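Reviewer 2 asked us to include a model.

Predict the structure of this chain.
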Amino acid sequence: MPRLALYALAVCLLAVAAAVMSFVQGSWLGVVWILLAGLSSNMTWYYVRRGKAEREAERAARAARAEGPVTG
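Predicted model (structure tokens):
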């Protein structure tokens, strides 16, 4: 998993914990924490998918180099 995805996941988990604590204390500030958790969750999925796409592109490039040039 890419490093940025791990950071975004950590932010997401901390935001959820902060939202729970805010709501338990009776504060409506938890709504902001929920929005931050949603944003960081989307960032996590974006970086995970981007990492997978980069790995697939590298694999395809290696396979193309291994086959060598195509001559007709």
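The helical segments are 3-24, 30-67. The two ends are 41 Å apart (CA to CA). We have added this to the supplementary material.
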